[in-house]
Amino acid sequence: MIVNLKNTMKEIINYQNGNVKVQLFEDGTRIMEFDETKPVVFDYPNSMDIKITNQCVGIPSKYGMGDFKPCAFCHEKSHFHGKHADINALIEVLDVLPGGQEMAVGGGNPLSHPDLPLLLQFCQTKKIFPSLTVNFHHLHGSNAVELKRYMEEKLIYGLGVSIPIEGIDKCSADEEYFLKYEHTVAHLIIGLHTPEIITQLRDRFGLRKFLLLGYKEFGRGLDYYKSYSEDIKNNIVEWDRNIIKIVSYTNVISFDNLSIEQLDMENKIPPKYWEENYQGDDFSHTMYIDAIEQKFAPTSRSDERVSWSETTLLKFFRENRNVFK
Fold this sequence. Notes:
alpha/beta; TIM Barrel
Protein backbone atom coordinates (compact mmCIF):
# COMPACT_ATOMS: atom_id res chain seq x y z
CA MET A 1 0.00 0.00 0.00
CA ILE A 2 1.10 3.56 -0.72
CA VAL A 3 -0.46 6.43 1.22
CA ASN A 4 -0.36 10.11 0.33
CA LEU A 5 -1.42 12.29 3.26
CA LYS A 6 -0.47 14.74 5.95
CA ASN A 7 -1.06 13.16 9.32
CA THR A 8 -2.76 15.48 11.80
CA MET A 9 -4.56 12.90 13.93
CA LYS A 10 -3.57 11.63 17.32
CA GLU A 11 -1.96 8.27 17.96
CA ILE A 12 -4.29 5.53 19.18
CA ILE A 13 -1.69 2.82 19.81
CA ASN A 14 1.97 1.97 19.37
CA TYR A 15 3.57 -1.42 19.77
CA GLN A 16 6.59 -3.53 18.92
CA ASN A 17 6.13 -6.21 16.27
CA GLY A 18 9.33 -8.21 15.93
CA ASN A 19 12.04 -5.61 15.35
CA VAL A 20 9.61 -2.99 14.02
CA LYS A 21 7.99 -0.15 15.97
CA VAL A 22 4.42 0.40 14.75
CA GLN A 23 2.27 3.49 15.35
CA LEU A 24 -1.41 3.66 14.43
CA PHE A 25 -3.32 6.94 14.25
CA GLU A 26 -7.01 7.82 14.37
CA ASP A 27 -7.18 8.58 10.65
CA GLY A 28 -5.81 5.15 9.72
CA THR A 29 -2.22 6.27 9.17
CA ARG A 30 0.29 3.58 10.06
CA ILE A 31 3.96 4.42 10.58
CA MET A 32 6.58 1.67 10.84
CA GLU A 33 10.11 2.36 12.08
CA PHE A 34 12.98 -0.11 11.81
CA ASP A 35 16.74 -0.36 11.41
CA GLU A 36 17.36 -0.51 7.66
CA THR A 37 20.74 -2.17 8.20
CA LYS A 38 19.10 -5.29 9.64
CA PRO A 39 16.61 -7.83 8.24
CA VAL A 40 13.06 -6.73 9.01
CA VAL A 41 11.09 -9.47 10.73
CA PHE A 42 7.47 -9.29 11.90
CA ASP A 43 6.23 -11.75 14.53
CA TYR A 44 2.58 -11.44 13.55
CA PRO A 45 0.51 -9.55 10.96
CA ASN A 46 -0.11 -5.83 11.44
CA SER A 47 -3.32 -6.06 9.47
CA MET A 48 -5.73 -8.74 8.27
CA ASP A 49 -8.42 -8.95 5.64
CA ILE A 50 -11.18 -11.18 7.04
CA LYS A 51 -14.21 -12.53 5.18
CA ILE A 52 -17.04 -13.34 7.61
CA THR A 53 -19.92 -14.02 5.22
CA ASN A 54 -20.68 -14.86 1.63
CA GLN A 55 -24.23 -13.54 1.94
CA CYS A 56 -25.18 -10.44 -0.02
CA VAL A 57 -28.64 -9.21 -0.96
CA GLY A 58 -27.30 -7.44 -4.01
CA ILE A 59 -28.80 -4.17 -5.19
CA PRO A 60 -31.98 -3.30 -3.22
CA SER A 61 -35.31 -3.06 -5.00
CA LYS A 62 -35.61 0.66 -4.21
CA TYR A 63 -33.18 1.22 -7.07
CA GLY A 64 -35.61 -0.35 -9.51
CA MET A 65 -33.35 -3.27 -10.33
CA GLY A 66 -35.23 -6.15 -8.72
CA ASP A 67 -35.07 -7.70 -5.27
CA PHE A 68 -31.63 -9.17 -5.93
CA LYS A 69 -29.07 -8.38 -8.57
CA PRO A 70 -25.59 -9.61 -7.62
CA CYS A 71 -22.60 -7.63 -8.84
CA ALA A 72 -21.50 -9.31 -12.07
CA PHE A 73 -17.80 -8.73 -11.27
CA CYS A 74 -17.83 -9.93 -7.62
CA HIS A 75 -14.67 -11.99 -7.17
CA GLU A 76 -16.12 -13.56 -4.01
CA LYS A 77 -19.23 -14.83 -5.85
CA SER A 78 -21.41 -13.64 -2.96
CA HIS A 79 -25.15 -14.30 -3.20
CA PHE A 80 -28.42 -14.13 -1.26
CA HIS A 81 -28.06 -17.61 0.28
CA GLY A 82 -24.36 -17.22 1.10
CA LYS A 83 -23.01 -18.88 4.24
CA HIS A 84 -22.02 -17.07 7.47
CA ALA A 85 -18.79 -17.78 9.37
CA ASP A 86 -18.70 -19.21 12.89
CA ILE A 87 -17.73 -16.06 14.82
CA ASN A 88 -16.91 -17.91 18.04
CA ALA A 89 -14.42 -20.07 16.15
CA LEU A 90 -12.91 -16.96 14.54
CA ILE A 91 -12.54 -15.26 17.91
CA GLU A 92 -10.68 -18.29 19.23
CA VAL A 93 -8.28 -18.06 16.26
CA LEU A 94 -7.71 -14.31 16.73
CA ASP A 95 -7.26 -14.49 20.49
CA VAL A 96 -3.57 -15.43 20.11
CA LEU A 97 -2.81 -11.92 18.79
CA PRO A 98 -1.39 -9.36 21.22
CA GLY A 99 -3.59 -6.48 20.00
CA GLY A 100 -2.89 -3.40 17.95
CA GLN A 101 -3.73 -5.00 14.60
CA GLU A 102 -5.99 -3.47 11.98
CA MET A 103 -8.71 -5.74 10.66
CA ALA A 104 -10.76 -5.18 7.49
CA VAL A 105 -14.01 -7.11 7.92
CA GLY A 106 -15.93 -7.89 4.76
CA GLY A 107 -17.95 -10.37 2.80
CA GLY A 108 -20.48 -10.42 1.13
CA ASN A 109 -22.22 -7.89 3.28
CA PRO A 110 -20.71 -8.11 6.79
CA LEU A 111 -23.73 -6.28 8.21
CA SER A 112 -25.86 -9.32 7.34
CA HIS A 113 -23.99 -11.49 9.85
CA PRO A 114 -26.05 -11.82 13.06
CA ASP A 115 -22.93 -12.27 15.20
CA LEU A 116 -21.00 -9.27 13.87
CA PRO A 117 -21.51 -7.37 17.18
CA LEU A 118 -19.86 -10.24 19.06
CA LEU A 119 -16.76 -9.96 16.85
CA LEU A 120 -16.60 -6.17 17.18
CA GLN A 121 -16.94 -6.34 20.96
CA PHE A 122 -14.10 -8.88 21.12
CA CYS A 123 -11.94 -6.56 19.02
CA GLN A 124 -12.68 -3.62 21.29
CA THR A 125 -11.63 -5.63 24.36
CA LYS A 126 -8.55 -6.99 22.58
CA LYS A 127 -7.55 -3.56 21.20
CA ILE A 128 -7.81 -4.76 17.61
CA PHE A 129 -9.05 -2.03 15.29
CA PRO A 130 -11.71 -3.22 12.83
CA SER A 131 -13.15 -1.47 9.83
CA LEU A 132 -16.12 -2.66 7.79
CA THR A 133 -16.35 -2.82 4.00
CA VAL A 134 -19.93 -2.19 2.88
CA ASN A 135 -21.54 -1.62 -0.52
CA PHE A 136 -22.99 1.88 -0.94
CA HIS A 137 -26.37 0.34 -1.84
CA HIS A 138 -26.58 -1.24 1.63
CA LEU A 139 -26.26 1.98 3.65
CA HIS A 140 -29.91 2.27 4.62
CA GLY A 141 -32.62 0.76 6.82
CA SER A 142 -31.51 -1.59 9.58
CA ASN A 143 -27.96 -1.57 8.22
CA ALA A 144 -27.77 2.19 8.78
CA VAL A 145 -29.10 1.86 12.33
CA GLU A 146 -26.50 -0.79 13.19
CA LEU A 147 -23.64 1.10 11.57
CA LYS A 148 -24.42 4.29 13.47
CA ARG A 149 -24.46 2.32 16.71
CA TYR A 150 -21.06 0.79 15.94
CA MET A 151 -19.67 4.25 15.30
CA GLU A 152 -21.13 5.76 18.45
CA GLU A 153 -19.83 2.90 20.60
CA LYS A 154 -16.42 3.05 18.86
CA LEU A 155 -16.74 -0.58 17.79
CA ILE A 156 -15.35 0.30 14.37
CA TYR A 157 -12.72 2.89 13.51
CA GLY A 158 -13.10 2.90 9.74
CA LEU A 159 -15.71 2.38 7.04
CA GLY A 160 -14.92 1.27 3.51
CA VAL A 161 -17.72 2.08 1.07
CA SER A 162 -17.72 0.22 -2.24
CA ILE A 163 -18.86 2.81 -4.76
CA PRO A 164 -21.24 1.70 -7.58
CA ILE A 165 -19.41 1.57 -10.92
CA GLU A 166 -22.04 3.87 -12.40
CA GLY A 167 -21.28 6.46 -9.72
CA ILE A 168 -23.72 8.14 -7.33
CA ASP A 169 -26.44 10.39 -8.70
CA LYS A 170 -28.22 11.08 -5.45
CA CYS A 171 -28.11 10.11 -1.79
CA SER A 172 -30.63 9.36 0.89
CA ALA A 173 -30.06 11.04 4.25
CA ASP A 174 -28.46 7.85 5.62
CA GLU A 175 -26.21 7.35 2.60
CA GLU A 176 -25.01 10.96 2.75
CA TYR A 177 -24.36 10.57 6.49
CA PHE A 178 -21.96 7.68 5.89
CA LEU A 179 -20.26 9.32 2.91
CA LYS A 180 -19.49 12.31 5.15
CA TYR A 181 -18.26 10.21 8.09
CA GLU A 182 -14.69 11.36 8.76
CA HIS A 183 -13.28 7.84 8.62
CA THR A 184 -15.04 6.71 5.43
CA VAL A 185 -12.81 5.52 2.58
CA ALA A 186 -14.32 5.23 -0.90
CA HIS A 187 -13.34 1.94 -2.54
CA LEU A 188 -12.82 2.14 -6.31
CA ILE A 189 -11.81 -0.57 -8.77
CA ILE A 190 -9.49 0.39 -11.60
CA GLY A 191 -10.82 -1.25 -14.74
CA LEU A 192 -14.41 -0.49 -13.71
CA HIS A 193 -14.60 3.01 -12.25
CA THR A 194 -13.39 5.97 -14.28
CA PRO A 195 -10.70 8.33 -12.94
CA GLU A 196 -13.20 11.20 -13.05
CA ILE A 197 -15.22 9.61 -10.25
CA ILE A 198 -12.72 10.84 -7.65
CA THR A 199 -13.43 14.47 -8.56
CA GLN A 200 -17.18 13.81 -8.58
CA LEU A 201 -17.17 12.20 -5.15
CA ARG A 202 -14.94 14.89 -3.71
CA ASP A 203 -16.86 17.85 -5.11
CA ARG A 204 -20.42 16.56 -4.71
CA PHE A 205 -20.22 14.63 -1.47
CA GLY A 206 -17.07 15.85 0.27
CA LEU A 207 -15.26 12.52 0.16
CA ARG A 208 -11.55 12.92 0.84
CA LYS A 209 -10.20 9.39 1.26
CA PHE A 210 -9.91 6.83 -1.53
CA LEU A 211 -8.62 3.28 -1.90
CA LEU A 212 -7.81 2.05 -5.41
CA LEU A 213 -8.24 -1.68 -5.88
CA GLY A 214 -6.86 -3.72 -8.76
CA TYR A 215 -9.24 -5.65 -10.97
CA LYS A 216 -9.45 -9.30 -9.84
CA GLU A 217 -9.85 -11.91 -12.57
CA PHE A 218 -11.45 -14.68 -10.54
CA GLY A 219 -14.85 -15.57 -9.15
CA ARG A 220 -17.53 -13.81 -11.20
CA GLY A 221 -14.83 -11.29 -12.07
CA LEU A 222 -13.30 -13.82 -14.48
CA ASP A 223 -16.45 -14.23 -16.58
CA TYR A 224 -17.03 -10.48 -16.49
CA TYR A 225 -13.47 -9.90 -17.70
CA LYS A 226 -13.94 -12.33 -20.58
CA SER A 227 -17.00 -10.36 -21.70
CA TYR A 228 -15.58 -6.86 -21.22
CA SER A 229 -11.80 -7.31 -21.35
CA GLU A 230 -11.16 -4.47 -23.81
CA ASP A 231 -13.22 -2.01 -21.77
CA ILE A 232 -11.42 -3.03 -18.59
CA LYS A 233 -7.97 -2.77 -20.21
CA ASN A 234 -8.77 0.64 -21.69
CA ASN A 235 -10.03 1.85 -18.33
CA ILE A 236 -6.81 0.76 -16.61
CA VAL A 237 -4.84 2.62 -19.28
CA GLU A 238 -6.87 5.74 -18.50
CA TRP A 239 -6.02 5.43 -14.80
CA ASP A 240 -2.40 4.85 -15.76
CA ARG A 241 -2.31 8.12 -17.72
CA ASN A 242 -3.89 10.18 -14.96
CA ILE A 243 -2.70 8.61 -11.72
CA ILE A 244 0.11 11.05 -10.92
CA LYS A 245 -2.23 14.01 -11.35
CA ILE A 246 -4.83 12.25 -9.20
CA VAL A 247 -2.30 11.58 -6.44
CA SER A 248 -1.20 15.22 -6.48
CA TYR A 249 -4.65 16.69 -5.81
CA THR A 250 -6.26 13.98 -3.66
CA ASN A 251 -6.14 14.44 0.12
CA VAL A 252 -5.68 10.76 0.93
CA ILE A 253 -5.23 8.03 -1.64
CA SER A 254 -4.05 4.49 -1.03
CA PHE A 255 -3.59 1.45 -3.22
CA ASP A 256 -3.83 -2.28 -2.74
CA ASN A 257 -0.83 -4.22 -4.02
CA LEU A 258 -2.71 -5.42 -7.10
CA SER A 259 -3.49 -1.87 -8.25
CA ILE A 260 0.15 -0.90 -7.58
CA GLU A 261 1.16 -3.69 -9.94
CA GLN A 262 -1.45 -2.89 -12.59
CA LEU A 263 -0.52 0.80 -12.57
CA ASP A 264 3.24 0.19 -12.22
CA MET A 265 3.36 2.72 -9.39
CA GLU A 266 6.91 1.96 -8.31
CA ASN A 267 8.22 3.36 -11.60
CA LYS A 268 5.94 6.40 -11.59
CA ILE A 269 6.90 8.13 -8.38
CA PRO A 270 10.25 9.36 -7.01
CA PRO A 271 12.31 6.63 -5.29
CA LYS A 272 12.47 8.60 -2.03
CA TYR A 273 8.67 8.92 -1.90
CA TRP A 274 8.31 5.22 -2.65
CA GLU A 275 10.72 4.25 0.12
CA GLU A 276 8.94 6.45 2.65
CA ASN A 277 5.38 5.44 1.80
CA TYR A 278 5.33 1.89 0.41
CA GLN A 279 3.95 -0.38 3.11
CA GLY A 280 5.45 -3.65 1.93
CA ASP A 281 4.63 -6.61 -0.30
CA ASP A 282 1.59 -8.79 0.31
CA PHE A 283 2.02 -11.20 3.23
CA SER A 284 5.12 -9.50 4.61
CA HIS A 285 3.04 -8.16 7.51
CA THR A 286 -0.50 -8.71 6.23
CA MET A 287 -2.66 -11.77 5.60
CA TYR A 288 -6.12 -13.01 4.65
CA ILE A 289 -8.55 -15.14 6.63
CA ASP A 290 -11.57 -16.84 5.10
CA ALA A 291 -13.57 -17.40 8.27
CA ILE A 292 -16.35 -19.16 6.37
CA GLU A 293 -14.11 -21.91 5.04
CA GLN A 294 -11.88 -21.56 8.14
CA LYS A 295 -8.69 -21.12 6.13
CA PHE A 296 -5.61 -18.88 6.14
CA ALA A 297 -4.07 -17.43 2.99
CA PRO A 298 -1.54 -14.75 2.06
CA THR A 299 -4.22 -12.70 0.23
CA SER A 300 -7.81 -13.02 -0.99
CA ARG A 301 -6.35 -13.82 -4.43
CA SER A 302 -4.36 -16.84 -3.19
CA ASP A 303 -5.31 -20.26 -4.54
CA GLU A 304 -3.43 -22.19 -1.88
CA ARG A 305 -5.09 -21.94 1.51
CA VAL A 306 -4.41 -23.72 4.79
CA SER A 307 -7.13 -25.01 7.11
CA TRP A 308 -7.33 -23.83 10.71
CA SER A 309 -7.31 -27.50 11.71
CA GLU A 310 -3.77 -27.86 10.32
CA THR A 311 -2.06 -24.89 11.95
CA THR A 312 -2.49 -21.76 14.06
CA LEU A 313 -2.60 -18.17 12.85
CA LEU A 314 0.84 -17.34 14.24
CA LYS A 315 2.45 -20.54 13.00
CA PHE A 316 1.01 -20.06 9.51
CA PHE A 317 2.24 -16.47 9.36
CA ARG A 318 5.72 -17.10 10.76
CA GLU A 319 6.42 -20.15 8.60
CA ASN A 320 5.16 -18.67 5.33
CA ARG A 321 5.47 -14.85 5.48
CA ASN A 322 7.25 -13.00 2.70
CA VAL A 323 10.40 -11.03 3.38
CA PHE A 324 9.56 -7.39 4.13
CA LYS A 325 11.00 -5.00 1.54
